[in-house]
Amino acid sequence: xxxxxxxxxxxxxxxxxxxxxxxxxxxxxxxxxxxxxxxxxxxxxxxxxxxxxxxxxxxxxxxxxxxxxxxxxxxxxxxxxxxxxxxxxxxxxxxxxxxxxxxxxxxxxxxxxxxxxxxxxxxxxxxxxxxxxxxxxxxxxxxxxxxxxxxxxxxxxxxxxxxxxxxxxxxxxxxxxxxxxxxxxxxxxxxxxxxxxxxxxxxxxxxxxxxxxxxxxxxxxxxxxxxxxxxxxxxxxxxxxxxxxxxxxxxxxxxxxxxxx
Amino acid sequence: xxxxxxxxxxxxxxxxxxxxxxxxxxxxxxxxxxxxxxxxxxxxxxxxxxxxxxxxxxxxxxxxxxxxxxxxxxxxxxxxxxxxxxxxxxxxxxxxxxxxxxxxxxxxxxxxxxxxxxxxxxxxxxxxxxxxxxxxxxxxxxxxxxxxxxxxxxxxxxxxxxxxxxxxxxxxxxxxxxxxxxxxxxxxxxxxxxxxxxxxxxxxxxxxxxxxxxxxxxxxxxxxxxxxxxxxxxxxxxxxxxxxxxxxxxxxxxxxxxxxx
Lengths: 261, 261
Prior knowledge:
Chains A, B: This is Probable 2-phosphosulfolactate phosphatase. The structure is a homodimer of 261-residue chains. Chain A has 261 residues and is α/β, with parallel strands linked by helices.
């Protein structure tokens, strides 16, 4: 196939540097937010990934007609919206649990049509909103999850830009579920012949191993054990649903809204 | 098998936290030096890994009778040893090449018996010595490579300690070769029933994919492409030799020396 993405100005800034000058756009995976300073994010479209559960819930909420979801870094910022008198839903999660005093956390079952249609949600989470704020200088920030993966990938294919898949991870470290999703995106974008870096290769290889039974594969992770202790196994199962949504949440100013495509 | 490693005091400090209280020592993988601040290194024996090529060359040099290898962070520190009048060999590598004015860099072929037996080498490299210095508070720091993997793992099995495998990576980011080696260590230590974290699971799964043809697998990496451009393919092939050494370099003060076992 013809590669339409030659003459990228970006490639010099790749931290791994293996594919300078090879004439196509880059598809890279940032395995944890702690590694984001290694990337010049303004050269990329960033996909933020926090499969269990923030970005899955954001995709589900936008799909279900939430007017906007405002990601904020701190619990205090989230609480401050209460004083502003807006009719916002306030969602705060830390360490996998709803913060006391808030309407809800980041369980996808809190983002149903009945609960969020027409409403604005202010959301802070342990990992996902952190990754989003660190990516703020990106060309564009979109939200990915298994729920909207094919719609997301089809849109990415129409963009003539470098793509950085940012895994929110767990407290700044690597986790398997976000990496597997990154690998699934790499899989769908293979036909476009992006230049991939080592993390993207690893993510895709792990996805190949896991794809026939994502749930079974993830059961062996430490994160799965922790989430099980939190009693959110139904949430986990829900977050592994593939293509039940066709919306792409995109950051517009300080709010995530449904992308018009 | 009976697990002899119960009642670890360490587990509370695990950044992933999935295996607290499960009653055995931890075997964790730090995928890049940039993630080291997430670990309380004083709770671990650290294995420093920089397969292409620093830790492979260190293992080979110690095996070949080098009296000591002194890892230093900066090229200037390395150069300063010249003025001290010692009969040291000075080795400096940056971005894969020998720094001009130095005896040699980190090619394993510079660490033969003829060149290093009875001598002390002062070494600075892009990634490997960086990872080592960041790990300095560890209970013990040892050096790993495919050259000495079985000897290293057999020794680790005799230690009743948490183990952190620190991948030097490439300029603070993830690379495949160091991760694969970490996965190979996880494989050899499986019988000891350590508690592993997500990076260790991922590293081991990638190793399973690659183990039958490490060279072929690594050819698809960006790093391999870069190293090929540097003309060091013979070095790469050499660094993938398994078990040609039976020495374990260990940090003693500021010097890496042969461990007495």
